[in-house]
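Postdoc handover notes: sequence design on the structure in folder B. Input tokens:
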């Protein structure tokens, strides 16, 4: 995989070795020429099911993964989370409990959570399966060519 964000939409049997959760049946999985043998911060996985924390609201779910991102203070983490919630069209639902969201909204929260730490590699297993076509296209259109981070002129800074 080359520098910058790589997006791959794969089936589950290929995602698990790609993120270091399982060893491949044969051969090896490489990133930047090095074998992937364990999970790492540079790779994020978005499975078909959103796997959100029901005790956290929408903002809390997106912030969860940012707590371990080095170099961001609380204000910066919040700005990053807000940026990605806006990207997926959920800025008005930041304080909504997860159980009040539709399946498509939950999937958009999961997408925002996966993108927020700005991984170099994002492996996705049918990430838009529960989204209607209009929402899926709108998300890609809001951030063409790079779902993985704000552009240079965006106000959010990633460490």
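Designed sequence:
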């Amino acid at each position: 995989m080359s520098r910058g964000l790589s997006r791959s939409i794969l089936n589950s049997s290929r995602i698990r070795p790609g993120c270091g959760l399982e060893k491949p049946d044969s051969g090896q999985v490489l990133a930047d020429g090095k074998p992937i043998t364990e999970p790492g911060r540079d790779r994020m996985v978005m499975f078909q099911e959103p796997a959100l924390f029901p005790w956290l609201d929408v903002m809390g779910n997106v912030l969860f993964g940012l707590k371990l991102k080095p170099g961001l203070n609380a204000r910066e983490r919040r700005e990053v989370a807000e940026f990605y919630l806006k990207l997926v069209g959920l800025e008005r639902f930041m304080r909504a409990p997860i159980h009040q969201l539709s399946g498509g909204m939950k999937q958009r929260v999961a997408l925002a959570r996966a993108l927020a730490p700005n991984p170099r590699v994002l492996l996705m297993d049918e990430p838009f399966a529960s989204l209607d076509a209009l929402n899926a296209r709108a998300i890609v259109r809001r951030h063409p060519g790079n779902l993985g981070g704000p552009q240079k002129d965006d106000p959010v800074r990633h460490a």
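Context for whoever picks this up: The helical segments are 12-18, 58-66, 74-87, 103-115, 133-142. Don't rerun without checking with the PI first.
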